[in-house]
Amino acid sequence: MKNKVEILMHPVRIKISQALLRNREHGLTPLEMVKILKDVPQATLYRQLQILVDAGIISVIQEKKVKSVSEKYYAINENEIRINGDEWSQVSTEEKLDYISYYQLLLMTQYKNYLEKLEEENSREDRSTFSVVELKIDENHFTQFQNELHELMTKYFNASSSNQDAPVRTVAITIIPEN
User: Fold this and answer.
1) pTM, entire model
2) What's the gap between Cα 134 and its chain centre?
């Protein structure tokens, strides 16, 4: 069995997790996921779903009989998608570099899709932002900063489920503790 980090950091499984997080209230069927994840073949999706189910990261929350087929609705187990410090410390440097590459590639793909959508809509208003800030702070303030940032992200993540019509906005933060 693969470790949790390896399971979660796979590019297709990251996309599945994101789709399920966006639809965490009611879950999604595989057919709904195929429509959302247009670049993921159906057979690949089913294979990756099974890996996530076997690892306990997602689960079937409902089954509906549609004609002669049982349609399964999957949801993410939010406690299982978090990688704790112990789990991350077991990962090799090479694997960490691979995972950050997947993460950056995923962001690049989302940004490319965003720019293409702006072009399709003939919009010149690009509201994306990028920034790099180097903070010279001691360990206590750094820990406090991370905790406050986590609380802020959690606050808005939890509030996001209330308005289903709102656009999805990706906020990605990479913290490099020391240079």
Assistant:
1) 0.73
2) 26
